[in-house]
Amino acid sequence: MKTPVTVLGLGAMGTALARAFLAADHPTTVWNRTPGRSPELDTLGATRATTAAEAIAASPLVVVCLLVDATVRSTLDGLDLTGKTVANLTNGTPAQARDTATWAAKAGAAYLDGGIMAVPAMIGGPAAFIFYSGAPDAFERHQADLAAMARPEYVGSDPGLAALHDIALLSAMYGMFGGAQHALALAGSEKVSAVRFTEDFLLPWLTAMLGSLPRIAKDLDEGPEPGAAGSNLGMQAAAYDNLIDTSVGQGVDPALLAPMGELLRKAVAAGHSDEDLAALIPLLRAGG
Ligand code: NDP
């Protein structure tokens, strides 16, 4: 028999996680604060617990997917977690993950913190993955069980590391979408078709530009190759004013773009004119 699992929280994501366990033939116990949520899980064979305590008692692996960290603590506080592995997939910060790990250890549980890199429709499919950090033995014990939801990616025993990876990827996503939304606002200011602009130009352009990321990463890990900057920061800082001026001229708020311009100017002032984009990252790490 496959490992019995419990899923606490049947929002959009928790429901998808429970469905994935059921599809992989895990005996699955579910609990949600508001009773009766996601009734399709009953038809699929889930056991519905009436309290969180009853749900936790049913399985060695307890997957938690609630709204925010405070919800996790208010739901689990005072319950018996002795001998359980808690995989908390609720979105949170590295500091929250470390606090919750300390709290879970006191409550007798092995703790894994997780960061879900997927939307509910992707759960159980090939593109979804979940970062895990925390108790290495608990990860090893349950890796195959966790794989029912999404490809598990263990990133270290410091419980904060999964949230760090998750938040870093979300930061990249929001930065990218912010830039894309600004581009669409600019194109739209002259009634350029959003569909044609996106399919013919925006997507291919972003895809081509993303190809430079591995080189930026290599520069960071190994130091920049002398004279390798094809697009030096001095040139980029000088051209950046055109982005701001065009936005203002077209009636588009430059607020999303302005901070990058300031960072470019700061890099040039600090003597990095001949380097390329990797030189911005130490400035960000120094707090800007
Ligand atoms: P939903 O808003 O759909 O569901 C929220 C869940 O939290 C519900 O089960 C709700 O219960 C429960 N909840 C809220 N407040 C409390 C409380 N005070 N006590 C007990 N339970 C409570 O959110 P999702 O399912 O989409 O998201 C869940 C987690 O997954 C979040 O941390 C989110 O950031 C993360 N996530 C979500 C993704 C997505 O695309 N949906 C993607 C990646 C991560 P009730 O039904 O009673 O309100």
TrEMBL record:
Domain 6-phosphogluconate dehydrogenase NADP-binding, which positions? 5-151
Q: Which GO terms describe its molecular function?
A: NADP binding; oxidoreductase activity
* Pfam family of the protein (one): NAD_binding_2
Determine the domain of life of the protein's source. Answer: Bacteria
| SUPFAM superfamilies documented for this protein | NAD(P)-binding Rossmann-fold domains (SSF51735)
Could you tell me the keywords of this UniProt record?
Answer: Oxidoreductase, Signal
* InterPro entries in alphabetical order: 6PGD_dom2, 6PGDH_NADP-bd, HIBADH-related, HIBADH-related_NP60_sf, NAD(P)-bd_dom_sf, RedAm-like_C
Q: Report if keyword Signal is assigned.
A: yes
Q: Membrane spanning segments where?
A: none
NADPH-dependent reductive aminase-like C-terminal domain spans which residues?
Answer: 158-285
Q: Which Gene3D superfamilies match?
A: N-(1-d-carboxylethyl)-l-norvaline Dehydrogenase, domain 2 (1.10.1040.10), NAD(P)-binding Rossmann-like Domain (3.40.50.720)
Task: Tell me the leader sequence span.
Answer: 1-18
Q: Please verify whether the record's keywords include Transmembrane helix.
A: no
Q: Which family does it belong to?
A: Belongs to the HIBADH-related family.
This protein is called what? Answer: 3-hydroxyisobutyrate dehydrogenase-like beta-hydroxyacid dehydrogenase
Q: Which organism is it from?
A: Kribbella steppae
